């Protein structure tokens, strides 16, 4: 029933204080992270240090927390455990809001994601593996796994591709250099794998692959592409689709992250009242069936992110003391 208390478990919370605090306004939040100093856990109602994702005890620890707190939804905040949670969902161990294992596995490997997108008739830039023929230059040599835009290098000819493929100490792929603006599309899908909304945003500035400034835009082509992608992949829960609009070939999807994106504030600020993604997830956890409202949001909203901190005492508990007393948001003048 709407309004009933519900518990949500967030995994790998790390520094995503914005996401944890947003959920905490609408549900009892349990934060799980192997790092006892993960700052985002202090925005939750309950926090637990759990085993590492590759530990056999990881899923049992999450299952015990779900049973203890009657958790209705498990939402990952990192790429690292999505496939683990997907398998646990199939096995009936966790109520995880994640795609099926095959999709979770493919989207964690950018080359496999490229192949899957082509299989589904979705636009992905020309991409090959080292040693295979390159269609045209320049290209980007990038790791097949990982996030944060690390170890990505532009190569203007074959010798440069060979150098960077050897220089990067992990498996890489070679992808067409996309000559045009980059966008992200923040989506949310329900348990029936229907796209509820798709909210595109510009990438005004990013650091380490994470957007820190951007503007929400009402771009019909991007909205429809976001919906097509998540419904073709049969995603459950949040997903961020990264795409370029190349001057020659048009739209090309360069990454699909089946989790909340780094610029989480964008869809939060743009959502209509009662329709922020955390609110919708909590409503789904209560058993409510949400009607799709793709394209219904406030365009023109911009965001500019910054860092803050917490002071902890000798018991690693927040003191509530701040360096300065923040004045709160206000208009200048």
Please write out the topology.
Blueprint lengths: L6 E5 L5 H8 L3 E5 L13 E3 L9 H12 L1 E6 L5 H9 L10 H8 L1 H10 L7 E2 L10 E5 L9 E3 L2 H10 L4 E5 L5 E8 L5 E8 L2 E3 L2 E6 L4 H13 L4 E10 L3 E8 L7 H6 L6 H9 L16 E3 L29
Parallel strand pairs: 1-2, 1-4, 2-3
Antiparallel strand pairs: 5-8, 6-7, 6-8, 9-10, 9-13, 11-12, 12-15, 13-14
Helix pairs in contact: 3-4, 4-5
Describe this structure in words.
The chain is 26% helix and 24% strand. With 333 residues, it is of the alpha+beta class. It folds into three domains: 1-98, Rossmann fold (3-Layer(aba) Sandwich), CATH 3.40.50; 99-125 and 178-333, ATP-grasp fold, B domain (D-amino Acid Aminotransferase, Chain A, domain 1), CATH 3.30.470.20; 126-176, no CATH class.
Question: What's this, in brief?
Answer:
By secondary structure, the chain is α+β, with helices and mostly antiparallel strands.
